[in-house]
Amino acid sequence: MHAPVQRSAARSPGLVHFALAMGGFAIGTTEFATMSLVPYFSKGLGIDEPTAGHVISAYALGVVVGAPLLAVAAAKWSRRTLLIALMASFALFNALSALAPTYHWMLLFRFLSGLPHGAYFGIAALVAASLVPYDQRSQAVGRIMLGLSVATVLGVPAANWLGQAVGWRWGFAVVAALAMLTVALVVWLAPKDRPEQGASPLRELSALANGQVWLTLGVSAIGFGGLFCVYTYVASTLMHVTGTPPWGVPLVLAIFGLGMIAGNIVVPRFADRALMPTGAALLIASAVALSLYPLAAHSLPLVAIDVFAIGFAGALGPVLQTRLMDVAGDAQALAAALNHSAFNTANALGPWLGGLAIAAGYGWTSTGWVGALLALGGLAILGVAVLADRRTA
Protein backbone atom coordinates (compact mmCIF):
# COMPACT_ATOMS: atom_id res chain seq x y z
CA MET A 1 0.00 0.00 0.00
CA HIS A 2 1.01 3.63 -0.46
CA ALA A 3 2.92 5.33 2.31
CA PRO A 4 0.51 6.89 4.80
CA VAL A 5 -0.14 10.59 4.55
CA GLN A 6 0.88 12.93 7.33
CA ARG A 7 -2.66 13.48 8.58
CA SER A 8 -1.67 15.84 11.35
CA ALA A 9 -0.58 18.39 8.77
CA ALA A 10 -3.73 17.97 6.67
CA ARG A 11 -6.95 19.94 6.65
CA SER A 12 -10.24 18.14 7.17
CA PRO A 13 -11.03 15.42 4.59
CA GLY A 14 -14.02 17.45 3.38
CA LEU A 15 -11.82 20.40 2.42
CA VAL A 16 -9.32 18.15 0.64
CA HIS A 17 -12.17 16.45 -1.24
CA PHE A 18 -13.44 19.89 -2.28
CA ALA A 19 -10.02 20.86 -3.61
CA LEU A 20 -9.76 17.64 -5.62
CA ALA A 21 -13.35 17.97 -6.88
CA MET A 22 -12.47 21.43 -8.22
CA GLY A 23 -10.00 19.71 -10.56
CA GLY A 24 -12.80 17.38 -11.65
CA PHE A 25 -14.97 20.44 -12.32
CA ALA A 26 -12.28 21.97 -14.54
CA ILE A 27 -11.76 18.70 -16.44
CA GLY A 28 -15.48 18.08 -16.86
CA THR A 29 -16.06 21.61 -18.12
CA THR A 30 -13.48 21.38 -20.90
CA GLU A 31 -14.34 17.77 -21.82
CA PHE A 32 -18.04 18.43 -22.41
CA ALA A 33 -18.02 22.14 -23.28
CA THR A 34 -15.62 21.61 -26.19
CA MET A 35 -18.40 19.71 -27.98
CA SER A 36 -20.72 22.73 -27.73
CA LEU A 37 -17.95 25.12 -28.87
CA VAL A 38 -17.28 23.25 -32.13
CA PRO A 39 -19.38 25.64 -34.29
CA TYR A 40 -17.44 28.61 -32.96
CA PHE A 41 -13.83 27.46 -33.06
CA SER A 42 -14.37 25.78 -36.45
CA LYS A 43 -15.17 29.23 -37.88
CA GLY A 44 -12.37 30.86 -35.94
CA LEU A 45 -9.80 28.38 -37.28
CA GLY A 46 -11.21 28.29 -40.81
CA ILE A 47 -12.28 24.63 -40.88
CA ASP A 48 -15.59 22.81 -41.26
CA GLU A 49 -17.41 21.32 -38.27
CA PRO A 50 -16.70 17.63 -39.05
CA THR A 51 -12.98 18.44 -39.15
CA ALA A 52 -13.28 20.42 -35.93
CA GLY A 53 -14.77 17.30 -34.32
CA HIS A 54 -11.33 15.67 -34.60
CA VAL A 55 -10.22 18.05 -31.86
CA ILE A 56 -12.56 16.23 -29.45
CA SER A 57 -11.19 12.88 -30.56
CA ALA A 58 -7.64 14.15 -30.01
CA TYR A 59 -8.48 15.01 -26.39
CA ALA A 60 -10.02 11.58 -25.79
CA LEU A 61 -6.94 9.93 -27.30
CA GLY A 62 -4.76 11.96 -24.95
CA VAL A 63 -6.76 10.65 -21.98
CA VAL A 64 -6.45 7.02 -23.09
CA VAL A 65 -2.72 7.31 -23.72
CA GLY A 66 -1.78 9.64 -20.89
CA ALA A 67 -3.47 7.86 -17.99
CA PRO A 68 -1.29 4.73 -17.95
CA LEU A 69 1.90 6.42 -19.19
CA LEU A 70 1.91 9.14 -16.55
CA ALA A 71 0.87 6.79 -13.75
CA VAL A 72 3.79 4.49 -14.54
CA ALA A 73 6.36 7.23 -15.26
CA ALA A 74 5.58 9.02 -11.98
CA ALA A 75 5.47 5.88 -9.83
CA LYS A 76 8.21 7.25 -7.52
CA TRP A 77 6.54 10.62 -7.01
CA SER A 78 4.48 11.52 -3.96
CA ARG A 79 0.78 11.72 -4.76
CA ARG A 80 0.49 15.38 -3.72
CA THR A 81 3.37 16.40 -5.97
CA LEU A 82 1.92 14.42 -8.86
CA LEU A 83 -1.52 16.03 -8.46
CA ILE A 84 0.05 19.50 -8.55
CA ALA A 85 2.12 18.66 -11.64
CA LEU A 86 -0.84 17.11 -13.46
CA MET A 87 -3.17 20.02 -12.87
CA ALA A 88 -0.49 22.62 -13.66
CA SER A 89 0.17 20.94 -17.02
CA PHE A 90 -3.59 20.73 -17.63
CA ALA A 91 -3.80 24.50 -17.04
CA LEU A 92 -0.88 25.16 -19.40
CA PHE A 93 -2.24 23.13 -22.30
CA ASN A 94 -5.74 24.60 -21.97
CA ALA A 95 -4.22 28.08 -21.99
CA LEU A 96 -2.31 27.15 -25.15
CA SER A 97 -5.58 25.83 -26.65
CA ALA A 98 -7.05 29.28 -26.09
CA LEU A 99 -4.14 30.76 -28.04
CA ALA A 100 -3.97 28.14 -30.83
CA PRO A 101 -3.31 29.95 -34.14
CA THR A 102 -4.25 27.09 -36.49
CA TYR A 103 -6.23 23.85 -36.56
CA HIS A 104 -3.14 21.64 -36.35
CA TRP A 105 -1.83 23.49 -33.30
CA MET A 106 -5.28 23.18 -31.75
CA LEU A 107 -5.23 19.44 -32.43
CA LEU A 108 -1.86 19.11 -30.68
CA PHE A 109 -2.84 21.23 -27.67
CA ARG A 110 -6.09 19.30 -27.14
CA PHE A 111 -4.20 16.00 -27.25
CA LEU A 112 -1.73 17.34 -24.67
CA SER A 113 -4.62 18.65 -22.54
CA GLY A 114 -6.04 15.15 -22.38
CA LEU A 115 -2.84 13.54 -21.10
CA PRO A 116 -3.23 14.53 -17.39
CA HIS A 117 -6.98 13.80 -17.26
CA GLY A 118 -7.05 10.11 -16.35
CA ALA A 119 -4.00 10.16 -14.10
CA TYR A 120 -5.43 13.12 -12.16
CA PHE A 121 -8.75 11.42 -11.45
CA GLY A 122 -7.02 8.16 -10.55
CA ILE A 123 -4.55 9.71 -8.10
CA ALA A 124 -7.20 12.09 -6.69
CA ALA A 125 -9.43 9.09 -5.95
CA LEU A 126 -6.60 7.34 -4.09
CA VAL A 127 -5.82 10.45 -2.04
CA ALA A 128 -9.51 11.01 -1.24
CA ALA A 129 -9.97 7.41 -0.12
CA SER A 130 -6.82 7.51 2.03
CA LEU A 131 -8.33 10.25 4.23
CA VAL A 132 -11.46 8.36 5.32
CA PRO A 133 -12.18 5.03 7.03
CA TYR A 134 -12.07 1.92 4.87
CA ASP A 135 -15.85 1.61 4.73
CA GLN A 136 -16.29 5.16 3.36
CA ARG A 137 -13.98 4.93 0.33
CA SER A 138 -16.74 4.92 -2.31
CA GLN A 139 -18.28 8.01 -0.75
CA ALA A 140 -14.91 9.76 -0.90
CA VAL A 141 -14.47 8.85 -4.58
CA GLY A 142 -18.05 9.95 -5.25
CA ARG A 143 -17.25 13.40 -3.88
CA ILE A 144 -14.36 13.74 -6.33
CA MET A 145 -16.60 12.68 -9.22
CA LEU A 146 -19.17 15.27 -8.13
CA GLY A 147 -16.90 17.89 -9.66
CA LEU A 148 -17.32 16.24 -13.05
CA SER A 149 -21.09 15.92 -12.57
CA VAL A 150 -21.57 19.54 -11.48
CA ALA A 151 -19.59 20.62 -14.54
CA THR A 152 -22.30 19.19 -16.81
CA VAL A 153 -24.90 21.40 -15.09
CA LEU A 154 -22.96 24.60 -14.38
CA GLY A 155 -19.54 24.62 -16.05
CA VAL A 156 -20.59 23.54 -19.54
CA PRO A 157 -23.45 26.04 -19.99
CA ALA A 158 -21.26 28.82 -18.57
CA ALA A 159 -18.37 28.01 -20.92
CA ASN A 160 -20.76 27.79 -23.88
CA TRP A 161 -22.33 31.15 -23.00
CA LEU A 162 -18.89 32.70 -22.63
CA GLY A 163 -17.85 31.27 -26.00
CA GLN A 164 -20.87 32.85 -27.66
CA ALA A 165 -20.65 36.18 -25.82
CA VAL A 166 -16.94 37.04 -26.00
CA GLY A 167 -15.33 34.35 -28.16
CA TRP A 168 -14.58 30.61 -28.02
CA ARG A 169 -11.01 31.14 -26.81
CA TRP A 170 -12.32 32.38 -23.45
CA GLY A 171 -14.02 29.01 -22.89
CA PHE A 172 -10.58 27.36 -22.75
CA ALA A 173 -9.01 30.28 -20.86
CA VAL A 174 -11.53 29.93 -18.02
CA VAL A 175 -10.74 26.21 -17.75
CA ALA A 176 -7.04 27.09 -17.44
CA ALA A 177 -7.93 29.51 -14.62
CA LEU A 178 -10.00 26.81 -12.85
CA ALA A 179 -7.07 24.41 -13.14
CA MET A 180 -4.70 26.93 -11.55
CA LEU A 181 -7.23 27.47 -8.77
CA THR A 182 -7.10 23.70 -8.20
CA VAL A 183 -3.30 23.83 -8.02
CA ALA A 184 -3.52 26.51 -5.34
CA LEU A 185 -6.12 24.55 -3.36
CA VAL A 186 -4.11 21.31 -3.53
CA VAL A 187 -0.94 23.12 -2.41
CA TRP A 188 -2.86 24.64 0.50
CA LEU A 189 -5.11 21.79 1.58
CA ALA A 190 -3.77 18.41 0.42
CA PRO A 191 -1.76 16.44 3.01
CA LYS A 192 1.94 15.98 2.41
CA ASP A 193 2.99 12.41 1.78
CA ARG A 194 6.17 10.57 0.92
CA PRO A 195 6.82 8.40 -2.14
CA GLU A 196 6.14 4.79 -1.27
CA GLN A 197 9.21 2.74 -0.45
CA GLY A 198 9.89 0.28 -3.23
CA ALA A 199 7.62 2.03 -5.72
CA SER A 200 8.72 1.66 -9.32
CA PRO A 201 7.29 1.68 -12.85
CA LEU A 202 7.78 -2.08 -13.00
CA ARG A 203 5.67 -2.64 -9.90
CA GLU A 204 2.88 -0.47 -11.31
CA LEU A 205 2.97 -2.51 -14.51
CA SER A 206 2.15 -5.60 -12.46
CA ALA A 207 -1.49 -4.46 -12.71
CA LEU A 208 -1.44 -5.57 -16.34
CA ALA A 209 -0.98 -9.18 -15.23
CA ASN A 210 -4.01 -9.04 -12.94
CA GLY A 211 -7.13 -10.59 -14.45
CA GLN A 212 -9.50 -8.86 -12.00
CA VAL A 213 -8.10 -5.47 -13.02
CA TRP A 214 -8.85 -6.23 -16.68
CA LEU A 215 -12.35 -7.47 -15.87
CA THR A 216 -13.12 -4.28 -13.94
CA LEU A 217 -11.81 -2.16 -16.80
CA GLY A 218 -13.97 -4.21 -19.15
CA VAL A 219 -17.07 -3.37 -17.13
CA SER A 220 -16.16 0.31 -17.41
CA ALA A 221 -15.38 0.25 -21.14
CA ILE A 222 -18.51 -1.72 -22.11
CA GLY A 223 -21.03 -0.92 -19.38
CA PHE A 224 -20.50 2.85 -19.55
CA GLY A 225 -20.83 2.80 -23.36
CA GLY A 226 -24.61 2.76 -23.08
CA LEU A 227 -24.72 6.10 -21.28
CA PHE A 228 -22.56 7.78 -23.93
CA CYS A 229 -24.47 6.08 -26.74
CA VAL A 230 -27.64 7.96 -25.73
CA TYR A 231 -26.05 11.18 -24.43
CA THR A 232 -24.22 11.87 -27.70
CA TYR A 233 -27.41 11.88 -29.75
CA VAL A 234 -29.93 13.09 -27.15
CA ALA A 235 -30.08 16.63 -28.58
CA SER A 236 -30.82 15.30 -32.08
CA THR A 237 -33.44 12.91 -30.64
CA LEU A 238 -35.12 15.74 -28.77
CA MET A 239 -35.32 17.87 -31.93
CA HIS A 240 -36.29 15.20 -34.47
CA VAL A 241 -38.37 12.75 -32.40
CA THR A 242 -39.67 14.57 -29.33
CA GLY A 243 -40.27 17.84 -31.16
CA THR A 244 -38.75 19.77 -28.29
CA PRO A 245 -38.64 23.58 -28.52
CA PRO A 246 -35.16 25.13 -28.47
CA TRP A 247 -35.30 25.83 -24.72
CA GLY A 248 -35.99 22.17 -24.00
CA VAL A 249 -32.64 20.79 -25.19
CA PRO A 250 -30.37 22.47 -22.60
CA LEU A 251 -33.04 21.77 -19.96
CA VAL A 252 -32.94 18.01 -20.60
CA LEU A 253 -29.13 18.04 -20.74
CA ALA A 254 -29.11 19.80 -17.35
CA ILE A 255 -31.51 17.15 -16.00
CA PHE A 256 -29.04 14.50 -17.15
CA GLY A 257 -26.34 16.26 -15.13
CA LEU A 258 -28.62 16.46 -12.10
CA GLY A 259 -29.12 12.70 -12.38
CA MET A 260 -25.35 12.21 -12.29
CA ILE A 261 -25.05 14.47 -9.24
CA ALA A 262 -27.80 12.60 -7.40
CA GLY A 263 -26.20 9.26 -8.28
CA ASN A 264 -22.79 10.29 -6.99
CA ILE A 265 -24.34 11.45 -3.70
CA VAL A 266 -26.65 8.48 -3.08
CA VAL A 267 -25.04 5.39 -4.63
CA PRO A 268 -21.61 5.40 -2.88
CA ARG A 269 -23.33 4.95 0.50
CA PHE A 270 -24.69 1.62 -0.70
CA ALA A 271 -21.43 0.71 -2.47
CA ASP A 272 -19.49 1.03 0.78
CA ARG A 273 -21.78 -1.63 2.28
CA ALA A 274 -22.07 -3.99 -0.71
CA LEU A 275 -19.76 -3.02 -3.56
CA MET A 276 -20.38 -5.63 -6.25
CA PRO A 277 -24.17 -5.95 -5.68
CA THR A 278 -24.42 -2.17 -6.01
CA GLY A 279 -22.52 -2.29 -9.30
CA ALA A 280 -24.80 -5.03 -10.60
CA ALA A 281 -27.91 -3.10 -9.54
CA LEU A 282 -26.68 0.02 -11.34
CA LEU A 283 -26.02 -1.88 -14.57
CA ILE A 284 -29.47 -3.48 -14.43
CA ALA A 285 -31.08 -0.09 -13.74
CA SER A 286 -29.09 1.42 -16.61
CA ALA A 287 -30.22 -1.32 -19.00
CA VAL A 288 -33.86 -0.75 -18.01
CA ALA A 289 -33.65 3.04 -18.36
CA LEU A 290 -31.88 2.76 -21.72
CA SER A 291 -34.39 0.22 -23.07
CA LEU A 292 -37.24 2.57 -22.09
CA TYR A 293 -35.62 5.50 -23.90
CA PRO A 294 -37.16 4.72 -27.34
CA LEU A 295 -40.64 4.75 -25.74
CA ALA A 296 -40.03 7.82 -23.57
CA ALA A 297 -38.49 9.86 -26.41
CA HIS A 298 -41.92 10.84 -27.80
CA SER A 299 -42.83 12.82 -24.67
CA LEU A 300 -40.74 15.65 -23.19
CA PRO A 301 -41.71 14.94 -19.54
CA LEU A 302 -41.11 11.19 -19.93
CA VAL A 303 -37.78 11.58 -21.74
CA ALA A 304 -36.62 14.06 -19.06
CA ILE A 305 -37.36 11.48 -16.33
CA ASP A 306 -35.66 8.73 -18.31
CA VAL A 307 -32.57 10.83 -19.02
CA PHE A 308 -32.34 11.61 -15.28
CA ALA A 309 -32.35 7.86 -14.59
CA ILE A 310 -29.65 7.23 -17.22
CA GLY A 311 -27.49 9.94 -15.63
CA PHE A 312 -28.12 8.51 -12.15
CA ALA A 313 -26.65 5.17 -13.27
CA GLY A 314 -23.45 7.04 -14.15
CA ALA A 315 -22.58 6.60 -10.46
CA LEU A 316 -21.06 3.30 -11.56
CA GLY A 317 -17.79 5.26 -11.76
CA PRO A 318 -17.02 5.43 -8.00
CA VAL A 319 -18.06 1.78 -7.64
CA LEU A 320 -15.54 0.61 -10.23
CA GLN A 321 -12.84 2.95 -8.89
CA THR A 322 -13.24 1.40 -5.44
CA ARG A 323 -13.23 -2.10 -6.92
CA LEU A 324 -9.87 -1.37 -8.54
CA MET A 325 -8.47 -0.33 -5.16
CA ASP A 326 -9.47 -3.75 -3.85
CA VAL A 327 -7.95 -5.83 -6.65
CA ALA A 328 -4.91 -3.82 -7.82
CA GLY A 329 -2.54 -4.81 -5.02
CA ASP A 330 0.65 -2.74 -5.17
CA ALA A 331 -0.22 -1.26 -8.58
CA GLN A 332 -2.79 1.23 -7.25
CA ALA A 333 -1.83 4.27 -9.34
CA LEU A 334 -1.83 2.53 -12.72
CA ALA A 335 -5.06 0.65 -12.04
CA ALA A 336 -6.82 3.81 -10.85
CA ALA A 337 -5.68 5.79 -13.89
CA LEU A 338 -6.59 3.02 -16.32
CA ASN A 339 -10.20 3.27 -15.18
CA HIS A 340 -10.41 6.62 -16.94
CA SER A 341 -8.82 5.21 -20.07
CA ALA A 342 -11.60 2.62 -20.03
CA PHE A 343 -14.16 5.35 -19.38
CA ASN A 344 -13.01 7.22 -22.49
CA THR A 345 -13.01 3.98 -24.47
CA ALA A 346 -16.71 3.81 -23.58
CA ASN A 347 -17.00 7.44 -24.69
CA ALA A 348 -15.76 6.36 -28.13
CA LEU A 349 -17.45 2.95 -28.38
CA GLY A 350 -20.98 4.00 -27.38
CA PRO A 351 -21.38 6.88 -29.88
CA TRP A 352 -19.78 4.80 -32.65
CA LEU A 353 -22.19 1.89 -32.19
CA GLY A 354 -25.12 4.27 -31.79
CA GLY A 355 -24.11 6.04 -34.99
CA LEU A 356 -24.02 2.73 -36.84
CA ALA A 357 -27.59 1.97 -35.74
CA ILE A 358 -28.81 5.39 -36.81
CA ALA A 359 -27.00 5.18 -40.16
CA ALA A 360 -28.53 1.73 -40.75
CA GLY A 361 -31.99 3.33 -40.64
CA TYR A 362 -33.14 2.28 -37.17
CA GLY A 363 -33.77 5.88 -36.12
CA TRP A 364 -32.50 8.23 -33.43
CA THR A 365 -34.12 6.28 -30.61
CA SER A 366 -32.27 3.08 -31.52
CA THR A 367 -29.40 4.38 -29.39
CA GLY A 368 -31.45 3.30 -26.37
CA TRP A 369 -31.52 -0.35 -27.47
CA VAL A 370 -27.82 -0.30 -28.34
CA GLY A 371 -27.06 1.30 -24.99
CA ALA A 372 -29.11 -1.32 -23.12
CA LEU A 373 -27.13 -4.10 -24.80
CA LEU A 374 -23.88 -2.43 -23.75
CA ALA A 375 -25.09 -2.15 -20.15
CA LEU A 376 -26.00 -5.84 -20.17
CA GLY A 377 -22.57 -6.59 -21.63
CA GLY A 378 -21.00 -4.78 -18.68
CA LEU A 379 -23.22 -6.77 -16.33
CA ALA A 380 -22.04 -10.03 -17.90
CA ILE A 381 -18.38 -9.05 -17.39
CA LEU A 382 -19.16 -8.12 -13.78
CA GLY A 383 -20.70 -11.57 -13.33
CA VAL A 384 -17.51 -13.19 -14.63
CA ALA A 385 -15.49 -11.14 -12.12
CA VAL A 386 -17.71 -12.29 -9.24
CA LEU A 387 -17.45 -15.94 -10.28
CA ALA A 388 -13.67 -15.64 -10.58
CA ASP A 389 -13.56 -14.18 -7.07
CA ARG A 390 -15.56 -17.10 -5.69
CA ARG A 391 -13.33 -19.66 -7.39
CA THR A 392 -10.25 -17.99 -5.94
CA ALA A 393 -11.84 -17.93 -2.47
UniProtKB/TrEMBL annotation:
Domain Major facilitator superfamily (MFS) profile: residue ranges: 16-393
Gene Ontology cellular-component annotations: plasma membrane
InterPro entries given in the database record: MFS (IPR011701), MFS_dom (IPR020846), MFS_Efflux_Transporters (IPR050189), MFS_trans_sf (IPR036259)
Bilayer topology: Multi-pass membrane protein
Lineage, highest ranks first: Bacteria, Pseudomonadati, Pseudomonadota, Alphaproteobacteria, Sphingomonadales
Protein name per the record: DHA1 family inner membrane transport protein
Compartment(s) of residence: Cell membrane
Keyword Transmembrane helix set for record: yes
UniProt keyword Transcription regulation present: no
Domain of life: Bacteria
Main location group: membrane
Keywords tagged on the record: Cell membrane, Membrane, Transmembrane, Transmembrane helix
GO terms for MF: transmembrane transporter activity
PANTHER family in UniProt: CHLORAMPHENICOL EFFLUX PUMP RV0191, PURINE EFFLUX PUMP PBUE
Transmembrane segments: 15-35, 55-75, 82-101, 107-132, 144-162, 168-190, 211-235, 247-267, 274-296, 302-320, 341-362, 368-388
Family annotation (SUPFAM superfamilies): MFS general substrate transporter (SSF103473)
